[in-house]
Design brief:
Strands 4, 9, 13, 14, 15, 16, 17 and 18 form an 8-stranded mixed β-sheet that branches. Strands 1, 2, 3, 5, 6, 7 and 8 form a 7-stranded antiparallel β-sheet that branches. With 689 residues, the chain is an alpha/beta fold. Among the domains are: 201 residues, P-loop containing nucleotide triphosphate hydrolases (Rossmann fold, 3-Layer(aba) Sandwich), CATH 3.40.50.300; 163 residues; 85 residues, no CATH class. Helix 7 packs across helix 8, helix 7 runs antiparallel to helix 13 and helix 16 runs parallel beside helix 17. A hairpin with a 2-residue loop joins strand 11 and strand 12.
């Protein structure tokens, strides 16, 4: 998972829609720094990520139910809904995802009524179009980065030591097993056990259902599906209208001499991007055809080798002789003349010798079939090499096209930013209009995707009802088939159990070694991290060859926890690259960390600041001015790709204003609010890295 942006609307301190926070994704500059004083919204930002993805909050997040901005509620009329949402975008395995979680409150005379929370997701593939996911958003997120693991990657730095707390060890152990793929095997075994029980009882009769009730429910769902389908048509028309306005606005920009060059370049880049997307689609289609038509050949190497061995054995035993057949020998005996011209009188010595060859000769039809089969086997072996050449070529093309498209998108972003900040007000206004059109199209697309997702869900419900109706006439399975399935299930359970035990031992030992290496880099103590068979994390010291537990301090536990997270990221990244994990691609991980170890001393702070950007594929650090002081800024500065400031507007009449200097420019951290409300504004640090 590679996070690309986050945007908020009326979420906690953030009034209205915030600018989209673009997150650094570059390999060298992989760090995004967000500065803000205490109370400015750093913890809210951290919890914005976890709320969208998992609907969970950190321990330091107060008043979890009060998500909607107070000013937005105060300005609403009684009975009106007030929307609050957070939208997070990320990339994973060549696809782009955009997920928004939304909640509403309804203002009443004395308080607010809290509505339900909704989660929406859109996925964009290589063609650049956005679609609803093929499964519920929660399942998509869970497959990429399961909720039980989120505390590894989204955490409060000052409270990270909870990983080694006694009351958290079992929870962390289970999460670790899931990330390493061990939990996948545990669940598989558990499901097989449940399946075995189910098979043992599969002939039991199910209860009868009222068909009329099922049909009535089906008609109700079909009506709702039709309503959503009509709304889909309305959205499509509105998107087409917005695309027309966008085209006209682009034309106006091209007509302005100051923006003409940039607009022409943008037009060229967009045309090139469309062409590359088409080429990317062609390469993927070629790869699919190769796999469907020739992929089976790579699985036949052992079979073809066995075939060749069988043929060789037959030839060595004389049961398969080339150039001679039983039909030929029968013809010679019948004519009573040998091929050499000698007479073959029945009962003579010559006749007996020719007759003996009959038992050694193969049937002509078998010989012909064997020859044809050998030729086909030779062709299969040749196709294997051809198949891998084609696969390697198209995979290289796919990677190249994706990289080119990514580079083009970065150039387009640069052009848009130049137009947004152009000295000409007319150019800025036109680009602003384009941004608003893009935002409108995106909102319509998200609504379209949510409705499509709902239509898919309703369709599944209709199909399920149809199956329930049809089940009334189904025959029962035969007992013999159930018994065979039970035996096969038991065999699978035993084999998976052995695989799990071996994998768990290997992963745990390698993980422990890496955790020790990282801990040693950061800490000057002689303590040694240990990971038990239950994946419980402890510190021990070795005195005279005897290991004994260490009563670690809060700081040592913070370092131990960070070492554990870093070790997991590093090892899982390596195991993913080597295809050792039975999980989707898990080779990239983000870390979003609030308040990075402000309670630690200077040496530890420097070491942690130095190692964190190296451990994480992507790092988002939320810091106060004092936490960013000296050693932290020095160690992380060359890894920073994006930087933002949270400006807190205080409603306190005599508030003390504050600021921070970044890149030679002073940015406010605290300001006097122009009204009676407190709120936070997000500003990007404007200088080239």
């Amino acid at each position: 998972m590679k996070l690309t942006s986050i945007k908020l609307c009326n979420f906690r301190q953030f009034y209205g829609k915030t600018p989209e926070i673009q997150l650094a994704c570059d390999r060298e500059r992989n760090t995004t720094v967000i500065h803000g004083n205490n109370g400015a919204g750093k913890t809210s930002l951290l919890n914005g990520f976890t709320w969208v993805l998992y609907e969970k909050f950190s321990a330091a997040f107060a008043s979890e139910t009060q998500l909607v901005n107070k000013r937005a509620i105060a300005e609403a009329e009684i009975g009106d809904p007030v929307e609050c949402w957070v939208e997070v975008a990320w990339e994973h395995d060549g696809k782009r995802y955009r997920t928004r979680r939304m909640c509403r409150v309804y203002k009443n005379e004395f308080d607010v009524d809290i509505g339900k929370t909704d989660l929406y997701m859109q996925v964009a593939g290589d063609d650049g179009r956005w679609y609803p996911p093929p499964q519920p958003p929660e399942e998509v997120i869970g497959e990429i980065l399961p909720g039980s693991l989120h505390q590894y990657f989204f955490f409060d730095g000052e409270r990270i030591e909870k990983i080694v707390r006694a009351d958290k060890k079992a929870e962390i152990a289970e999460a670790t097993k899931m990330l390493l793929g061990v939990e996948v095997l545990n669940r598989s075994i558990k499901h097989l056990v449940e399946a075995k029980k189910s098979l043992e009882n599969e002939l039991k009769a199910i209860g009868d259902l009222e068909i009329k009730q099922l049909v009535k429910e089906q008609q109700k769902i079909e009506k709702e599906s039709d309503r959503l389908a009509n709304r889909q048509k309305e959205i499509e028309l509105e998107i087409e209208h917005q695309q027309t306005i966008k085209k006209e606005t682009n034309q106006l920009l091209r007509e302005l001499s100051a923006a003409k060059e940039l607009q022409l370049r943008r037009q060229q880049l967009e045309a090139q991007k469309d062409l590359d997307r088409e080429n990317l689609k062609k390469s993927k289609d070629i790869l699919k055809r190769a796999i469907s038509s020739k992929g089976y050949t790579v699985l036949l190497a052992e079979v073809t080798a066995q075939f060749r061995q069988i043929i060789e054995n037959l030839r060595q035993r004389g049961e398969l002789k080339p150039g001679i057949s039983r039909d030929l020998i029968d013809e010679l005996l019948k004519s009573q003349y040998c091929l050499c011209g000698n007479e073959l009188s029945e009962g003579s010595a010559s006749w007996e010798r020719v007759q003996s060859w009959k038992d050694k000769a193969g049937i002509a039809a078998i010989e012909e079939t064997t020859i044809r089969t050998i030729a086909r086997v030779d062709e299969i072996d040749r196709q294997v090499a051809t198949f891998w050449e084609e696969v390697d070529r198209e995979q290289a093309n796919i990677s190249q096209f994706r990289q080119v498209i990514n580079d083009i998108e970065q150039q387009l972003d640069t052009i848009q930013e130049k137009l947004r900040t152009d000295p000409s007000a007319e150019i800025r206004n036109l680009q602003k209009r384009l941004d608003e059109i893009e935002e409108k199209i995106r909102e319509l697309t998200l609504e379209q995707g949510a409705d499509r997702q709902q239509i898919i869900n309703l369709k599944s419900q209709i199909e399920a009802l149809n199956k329930q109706i049809l089940k009334q006439n189904l025959d029962r399975e035969k007992q013999a088939l159930a018994q065979r399935r039970i035996a096969a299930t038991q065999d699978a359970i035993e084999r998976l159990t052995e695989v799990r035990n071996r994998q768990e031992r290997q992963f745990r030992c390698q993980l422990e070694q890496r955790v020790r290496e990282i801990f040693s880099e950061i800490s000057f103590t002689p303590y040694i991290p240990k990971i038990s068979e239950k994946y419980e994390l402890t510190l021990v010291e070795n005195t005279a060859g005897i290991e004994s537990p260490v009563a670690a301090s809060t700081g040592e536990n913070q370092i131990l926890s960070l070492s554990f997270i870093g070790g997991i990221i590093d090892r899982v990244r390596e195991w993913s690259d080597r295809k050792m994990l039975m999980l989707p691609d898990t080779s990239t991980f983000p870390i979003v960390m609030d308040s990075p170890f402000g309670s630690l001393d200077e040496i530890y702070r420097r070491q942690i600041a130095k190692i964190i950007p190296q451990l994480a594929n992507q790092l988002v650090v939320l810091v106060t001015k004092t936490q960013w002081r000296g050693e932290v800024a020095e160690e992380i500065a060359n890894r920073v790709g994006r930087e933002y400031v949270l400006i807190y507007y205080s409603s306190k009449p005599d508030c003390e204003e504050d600021s921070i200097e970044l890149g030679g420019t002073r940015y406010p951290l605290v300001r006097q609010s122009p009204n009676e409300f407190e709120y936070t504004e997000i500003v990007e640090v404007d200088y080239d890295f």
